[in-house]
Write a structure and sequence with these properties.
Distance between the termini: 24 Å
Largest sheet: 3 strands, parallel
Structural class: mainly alpha
Number of strands: 3
Shape: globular
Oligomer: single chain
Number of helices: 5
């Protein structure tokens, strides 16, 4: 979730409360959920966890998306995903992440109504030419959680319409 409403932005402007709230929403929840499901998965010696990262964790766009606490939380989510994957693979548990670009969701309403950002998405996400559709992310999630991905773990799948390479 976006931390803008809590004070996320460029690092020198982020409030302590904005930093903490953004990390809680984006990283602490991942920790709590993963810990809870891992306890059950370990008993079964199988399972799959899918975390949400963001393309801006490793391919920033400073002019319009300078939310440093959000990027830090999602970068930590990537590190945690890979670390978990390495540890839990011998237990038959896969851990992966999706790193979406800008998706048409309630969180992106600001971007959806900003003509400047919509114009940027034509080149930043050239495969979509706009914001991504939530179904694009859902299809990737179904794949990573399903049997076709049974030998995939520790991966971060960018579903970003070409953001990273634009």
């Amino acid at each position: 979730g976006s931390g803008r409403k809590f004070g996320d932005g460029p690092l020198h402007l982020i409030s302590d409360a904005g930093w903490e709230r953004t990390l809680d929403v984006n990283l602490k929840t991942m920790f709590l959920m993963s810990r809870a499901v891992l306890r059950r998965m370990l008993a079964r010696e199988r399972g799959a966890i899918l975390n949400m990262a963001t393309v801006t964790a490793y391919s920033p766009e400073p002019s319009n998306f300078a939310t440093h606490a959000y990027a830090a939380a999602k970068g930590a989510a990537i590190a945690m995903t890979r670390s978990m994957a390495a540890y839990y693979a011998p237990h038959g548990i896969r851990v992966n992440a999706i790193a979406p670009g800008l998706v048409r969701t309630p969180m992106s309403l600001r971007a959806q109504t900003d003509a400047r950002i919509l114009e940027l998405m034509k080149t930043k996400q050239p495969l979509a030419g706009s914001l991504l559709d939530p179904d694009d992310i859902a299809r990737a999630a179904v794949f990573l959680l399903g049997p076709s991905a049974q030998m995939i773990t520790g991966q971060v799948l960018g579903v970003d319409g070409g953001w990273e390479v634009s």
